[in-house]
């Protein structure tokens, strides 16, 4: 809850207004380094500022360093390589990650998933059951996003890579993911998207 409030405070209108001025930096914006920083209320939960679209404090990826290790959210496809670098800098090998969890399947939250699991070879991707088919075959989702966003903004949101069925876990309301001390509980939360999940960490009461 503490985490989401911080990022919800961003003025999205102001950020989107800056897109046109920054679009020439599209190919270079992912160069900003990313690192996982500990959260004050839990020594095993870390946050990395994605700096999505080159904007500070716009988007976040979380790492839970428990017996089983989880990444929550992935940013866009542009962000995947920096997430892998941040995992290495943290002291983990990508193949030590057991779970990649996405709150919903929009490109700025799940766009990196298919690219990450190429290196996170032990990980499965946890996704709302209504979003499962779109991660297996994201062509329709990507085309819809491109149509809605237009060519300039669509480029900044990147693309998606299909995820093999055996690397996906469909999640229903009140399903659980046990990591060790941390237990994640999933709640069906349609609103922003019909395939959206609210994720509660029962140990620290943090909500993603």
Structure summarized in a few sentences:
With 208 residues, the protein is an alpha/beta fold. The protein has helices at residues 2-8, 12-22, 80-90, 107-110, 113-119, 132-136, 139-157; strands spanning 37-39, 42-49, 60-65, 69-72, 97-101, 124-128, 168-171, 176-178, 183-188, 197-201, 206-207.
Report on this structure.
The structure is a single chain. The model is unreliable at 1-28 (pLDDT under 50). The protein is 31% helix and 25% strand. The chain has one domain: Metallo-beta-lactamase, Chain A (4-Layer Sandwich). The protein has helices at residues 2-8, 12-22, 80-90, 107-110, 113-119, 132-136, 139-157; strands spanning 37-39, 42-49, 60-65, 69-72, 97-101, 124-128, 168-171, 176-178, 183-188, 197-201, 206-207. It is of the alpha/beta class and 208 residues long. The chain has 7 helices and 11 strands. It has a 7-stranded mixed sheet with strand order 1-2-3-4-5-6-7. A 4-stranded antiparallel sheet has the order 8-9-10-11.
Pick out its properties.
208 residues, Metallo-beta-lactamase, Chain A, four-stranded antiparallel sheet, globular, alpha/beta, seven-stranded mixed sheet
What's the SSE blueprint?
Elements: H1 2-8, H2 12-22, E1 37-39, E2 42-49, E3 60-65, E4 69-72, H3 80-90, E5 97-101, H4 107-110, H5 113-119, E6 124-128, H6 132-136, H7 139-157, E7 168-171, E8 176-178, E9 183-188, E10 197-201, E11 206-207
Parallel strand pairs: 4-5, 5-6, 6-7
Antiparallel strand pairs: 1-2, 2-3, 3-4, 8-9, 9-10, 10-11
Helix pairs in contact: 3-5
